[in-house]
Amino acid sequence: MLLLAVGVNPLPIYARLLFGAFENRYWVSELILKITPLLLCSLAVTLALRVKFWNIGVEGQFCMGAWTAGGLAIAFGWLPKYLLLPLMALGGIVGGSLWGAIPAVLKVKLKVNEIITTLLMNYIAEQWLYHFIYGKWKGSDGFPYTNNFSEAAYLPALFGQRAHVGIFFGVIISVVLYFVFKKTRFGYRIKVVGENIKAARYGGINVGLVTLTVMLLSGGVAGLAGMSDVAGIHHRLNPNILTGYGYTGIIIAWLSKSNPLQVLIASFLFGILIVGGDIVQVYQVPNAIVRILQGTIFLSVLAAESIGRKIWTTHRPTNP
Fold first, then answer.
1. Closest Cα to residue 65, out of 292, 273, 225, 258?
2. Which of 19, 71, 217, 282 has most Cβ atoms within 10 angstroms of its Cβ?
C-alpha cells in the first residue's frame, strides 16, 4: 500500500529489494560490505546473551574500537602494513573490551542494570569520538573528520570493489565461538551461568569472573568491527561511522537464538535487505519508504518468531 501511495509498482520493487544484491559484482561487493559489521556486532551481542547479559552497548564498543584503531593509524601511519594493521586490530579489540568491561563490573559488583549502563555508554562513546574529530584530530581542510590514514592502514579490498577482508574476521569468529560453546570447558561454564546462576554458583563456577570475561570478549569483537569499518571503508574517522549496526545486531542475535552459525546466516539475510533498500532508491523510491519496508519486514520476522514459539509451547506434546 505504501508503494502504491507514492505511485510505484510494488512487484518490481520487492524483487529488487530481495534479489537486487546479486545483480552484479558491485552489489555483491556491497552485500559483503554490509554483512561484515552486521556479523561482528551480532556475534558481540550473542556472546553477552549467552550469560544473560543484555549488551545494548555494542554501538558504543564499536565506536571505541574505531576510535582506538583510528588513533593508532594517525599516530603510527609510518609503520608498514604488516605491522600497522595488526596493531590497529589489537587496539580496536582492546578499546572495545575495556568499554564493555565497565558495565560488566558495575553489574557484577554493584548489581547495576546492564541495559541502562550499556545504552547510556553508547552516547558517551559517540560524544568522545566527536570530541576528537571536531577537535585535535580535525582534518587539515577544517571539516569534522580526520585526515585520511596512510595506505598501510587500509584493509585489503575484495573483487576490486569496496568489500574488504574484514568479512573473514566474522566468519572465523563464528566458527571459533561455535566450537568454544559446544566443545570446551569454558563454553560449558558460559552455558551453565546463562541457564541457571544458582546452579552455577552451587557447582563452584565464579559467575562474576565468567560474566566479566565474556563481556571483555563481547566488547573486543565489537571493537574489531569498528576497526574493520574504519580501516576497510572510511579510511579516516568521521561522524558517519555510527550507523546503527550495534542495534541491528541485537535483533540478529535474538533471532539466531545466540547460535554463532545461525548469526552468520541471519546477518546474510539482513544484509540482503539493507543492500536491496539502497538499490530501490535508485528507482525513485523515497528513503523513508524503504526504511518503513525494512522495519515492517524485521517486525514481521520478530512477530513470526514469537508466535511460533508460543504455538510450540502451547501445543508441545508431553511425555505420558
1. 225
2. 217
Residues 6+ apart with CB under 8 A from 16: 276, 279, 280, 283
Full DSSP string of 157-173? BSTTSS-BTHHHHHHHH
Measured CA to CA in angstroms, residue 185 lies from 162, 188, 191, 302, 303 at distances of: 40, 5, 10, 33, 35
Q: Which helix (H) or strand (E) holds 85?
A: helix 81-110
Other Cβ atoms closer than 10 A to 308:
10
Q: Do residues 161 and 85 make contact, with C-beta atoms less than 8 angstroms apart? A: no
Name the E strands within the chain. none
Question: What are 138's three cell numbers?
Answer: 580535525
Report the interhelical angle of 10-19 vs 260-280 (nearest 10°): 140
Give the integer Cα–Cα distance in Å for 298 and 174.
23
Q: Distance between terminal CA atoms of the chain?
A: 49
Averages of pLDDT over runs of 10 residues in the chain (320 residues) are: 71 82 89 95 96 94 97 95 96 97 95 94 96 92 90 92 93 96 94 91 92 96 96 93 89 88 92 85 71 74 75 63
Residues with Cβ within 8 Å of residue 316, at least 6 apart in sequence: none
CA–CA dist 249, 224 (Å, integer): 14
Q: Which own/partner pairs from 138-145 qualify as long-range (CB within 8 Å, at least 24 positions apart)?
A: 139/236, 144/238, 144/239, 145/236, 145/237, 145/238, 145/239
- Cα angle 145, 124, 49 (rounded to 5 degrees) comes to 115
